Amino acid sequence: MFHTYIIGEIGQNHNGEVDTAKQIIDVMAAPVTDELFGQELKPMDAVKFTKRDLSEELSAEASLEPYDNPNSFGKTYGEHRAFLELNDEQHHELYEYAKSKGLEFIETLCAKGCLTMLDKFTPDKLKVASRDLSNLPLLEVLAETKIPIILSTGMAGQSELDEALEIVTKHHDQISILHCISQYPSEYSNINLNSIPYLKQHYPDYTIGYSDHSIGIMIPVAAVSLGASMIEKHVTLDRGMKGTDHKGSLGPDGIFRMVRDIRNVEKSFGKNDIFIDESVTGVREKLERSIASSQEIAEGAVITEAYLHLLSPGNGLKWIERDKIIGKKALEKISKDSIIYENMIE
């Protein structure tokens, strides 16, 4: 059966706290049950974190820029960014914790200096942020690790994507491409989900998916219906928490509903055919119509079409089979509005 690889992006929604990150992981790993049919569904597949090297992140001027707003964790933007960073050891601790919960672990590494993390553990995949798709020196060192890599197209066109692929494919071809719009939140008219089938057609050798920044769960589910086999969505414990990404993220209920709906969409695809499914046999017999008597028919009377109409249940002859009845004699008296079965006629 078709399976969507669902990534919960914590990013820096941990607010600089390992325990908060673990609580979000717990929500992501929780069982997902479709109560209507009593079915246990597969939860998210992977958690994703972001690691920055602040020495390679901001200009001196940008680092010292005052950052005074309700979501700030420091007086300057540099202090704010530093507060939200977890060190390599903490990322390793979260890697081990996610693994213990059955989740794969993905890292967005934003600078060459972040590769020190790989001395402690190997993520299942590396993610290249949209802003770094054109950061070819970073792409080179990430690709050299030969760890499967995810490319996000949120700020890129086809030429930038092709340039990135040229770098990565020198080292390996374990590549996923995520259609993305780096607008927070993304307006629906800008999302252009038709980029997903376009990418599938033009880049058939790679996994094609969608990284979502819209509000709610509708667009990721729609993306799966268009063929996205990987979905990335920001997640949090509480959308009202302090921090810039929480409001555009899914809280626990949203996580549950998105995963439930994606897993049920997967089940709904079926096969490329049209047929009568065995599940409708009972209701078909109950609700379809059969040839019935529109008036009382006397024993021995020759049945004409004027005697006939259609009524439920559907366990008798269908209208297309009326020639089996028309012109035949009734072997017994047939009451008005009775289904006419073959043993009732000559």
Summarize the structure in short:
The chain has helices at residues 18-29, 60-63, 77-83, 88-100, 136-144, 158-168, 188-191, 195-202, 218-225, 252-268, 281-287, and strands at residues 5-11, 32-34, 39-41, 46-51, 104-109, 125-128, 149-152, 175-180, 207-212, 230-234, 290-293, 308-311.
Word description of this protein:
- This protein has helices at 18-29, 60-63, 77-83, 88-100, 136-144, 158-168, 188-191, 195-202, 218-225, 252-268, 281-287; strands at residues 5-11, 32-34, 39-41, 46-51, 104-109, 125-128, 149-152, 175-180, 207-212, 230-234, 290-293, 308-311.
- The strands form three sheets. An eight-stranded parallel β-barrel has the order 1-4-5-6-7-8-9-10, surrounded by six helices. A two-stranded antiparallel ribbon has the order 2-3. It has a two-stranded antiparallel sheet with strand order 11-12.
- The chain starts with a strand and ends in a 35-residue tail after the last strand.
- The chain is of the alpha/beta class and 346 residues long.
- The protein has two domains: 5-268, Aldolase class I (TIM Barrel), CATH 3.20.20.70; 278-344, Antifreeze-like/N-acetylneuraminic acid synthase C-terminal domain (Type Iii Antifreeze Protein Isoform Hplc 12, Alpha-Beta Complex).
- The protein has eleven helices and twelve strands.
- It is elongated and about 100 Å long.
